[in-house]
Amino acid sequence: MQLIEANGAKIPAIGLGTWELRGRTCARLVEQALKLGYRHIDTAQVYENEREVGEGLRASGVRRNDVFVTTKVWTTHFAPNDLERSSKESLAKLRLSEVDLLLLHWPNPHVPLQETLGALAHVKKLGMARHIGVSNFTVALIEEAVAACPEPLACDQVEYHPYLDQTKVREACARHGMAVVAYSPVAKGRIKGDQTLVQIGQAHGKTAAQVCLRWLVQQNVSAIPRTSKIERLSENIDIFDFELSDDEMHRISQMGSAKGRLTNFGFAPKWD
Ligand SMILES: NC(=O)c1ccc[n+]([C@@H]2O[C@H](COP(=O)([O-])OP(=O)(O)OC[C@H]3O[C@@H](n4cnc5c(N)ncnc54)[C@H](OP(=O)(O)O)[C@@H]3O)[C@@H](O)[C@H]2O)c1
Hints:
Number of strands: 10
Bound molecules: NADP nicotinamide-adenine-dinucleotide phosphate
Distance between the termini: 31 Å
Structural class: alpha/beta
CATH superfamily: NADP-dependent oxidoreductase domain
């Protein structure tokens, strides 16, 4: 598995997203994914499935140190004491002594960023997280975070797929040695019948989803597709035996614009 190196972290290029996966389905998919070769699982406190992610991890028989586990702290827990307590709760649910990556799930302008980052760095120092990072941060917020955080930030996890241009965020992350981790990497399934991706895939014997994920990892981006279907687990990881040409990469990149964003909330920052 290709690894994305970022400020000391080695993040497997493909991970399993688990948003909306619940209960036994979640545990079973995590177990199957790890048995199929996945080595990176993405969860969050707010997904309410950390317990099941931990169960799937143990059921898979894959050694703990061989799996990269990410979880995220929700924005209502950004006051320093809350952040530490909330991180302990996540570890208790996962039944892990530490996660590989702990992220601030969204920016929260109501709590000073410096305080929250101080607490996040402290949690890392306590050994509860091997690496720390952010999610849904814009270029301005990345700059502010890097300046304020006493520890290096490993990544910004943001929405990224062929319909959304993320050049500015990618460049900001590269400047600071941070990885981009792409959420909604198959545009929530919308790429399935895309003519450009299907056509490029035909030349390589691959599906549109595989072309889309290959386009991301070929930019040194880690992608965390979610599926509730066992057969798609294999499809989404079977992308390391072909390469897109410069021309194919360019054609896919040209599909992106600022209008392609799928996830937006009232509390979202002003996007780049
Ligand atoms: N940091 C954040 O704020 C944030 C926000 C959103 C998501 N995330 C993370 O990123 C992960 C992925 O994002 P996402 O769940 O929004 O979207 P996604 O992974 O782009 O899309 C998931 C959807 O695509 C379908 N799909 C998956 N593989 C496919 C394939 N090979 N062909 C066709 N359809 C396919 C799935 O359907 P089936 O289940 O039917 O296969 C599902 O409906 C989440 O699970 C979560 O871990 C983070």
